[in-house]
Amino acid sequence: MNVSVVKANGETVASVDLEPSDSVRELQTRVWRVTGVATTRQRLVHKAAVLDPAASLADSLVEDGAQLTLVILPGKILTASSDGAARIWSLGTGECTEVFDQQQREEFERRSAEVMSATFSPDGASVLAGIYYGASEVSELWNIRAGEVTQFFVCGFCKVLSAVFSPDGASILTASDDCTAVCWSVHSGDRVQTFQGHSQVVQSAVFSPQGALVLTASADGTAKLWNAASGKCTRTLQIGGRGPRSAAFSPDG
């Protein structure tokens, strides 16, 4: 079946081929891939009713050739702080709408924690937070809708200074004070690749827009470019001084 998604002004956003058994959330994911609008900001309206993302298209009475209206909610801001919490704020109202803090953490001892970094997943459905507990480091993946931790990435006795998603959302990349950057599987929570070669703290690590490369910035005065799959360093940039605090790719990679 084919479903069209349009804006309120009638402009076509996407035309998608799906099965009646597919969920509304799957349709939202397809819209996200085309528009870049996170699924959490999407509301799909059909016959004056807002569709439930968990329901199937058939149960939502969406038929072949149907035209759905896309309503985009105001954007969100994510902050990380030393009080142990990551917070989501409404860009429209300036109000805090979600709090992810240590009071909700049951798997680890509730002690003084500091959120070193926080970022949204590419589809906007999850939050990744790097938590420092004073003696060990854990990165947590939170489901925004459920407000629950869905995955832990146990980094050990080091301090993670940044944590980011890969462009496809299937992996995360952490940079830490043990002089390494590590790629993790979002699905399993396991280490996939370790990038070793810096002699001092790795202050940031990011994926290229296509996800094939990794760029690290270190206090050893260098930035390094790595092959994401093999973990091999392909180029070293000599910055000098105290080294770069961060490094980033251009949008075209």
Automatic annotation (TrEMBL):
InterPro entries: Quinoprotein_ADH-like_sf, Ubiquitin-like_dom, Ubiquitin-like_domsf, WD40/YVTN_repeat-like_dom_sf, WD40_PAC1, WD40_repeat_CS, WD40_rpt. Residues 1-72 form the Ubiquitin-like domain. Keywords: Repeat, WD repeat. Pfam families: ubiquitin (PF00240), WD40 (PF00400). Gene3D superfamilies: Phosphatidylinositol 3-kinase Catalytic Subunit, Chain A, domain 1, YVTN repeat-like/Quinoprotein amine dehydrogenase. Transmembrane segments: none annotated. WD repeats lie at residues 77-99, 160-194, 195-236. It comes from the Eukaryota. This is Ubiquitin-like domain-containing protein. It comes from Pyrodinium bahamense.
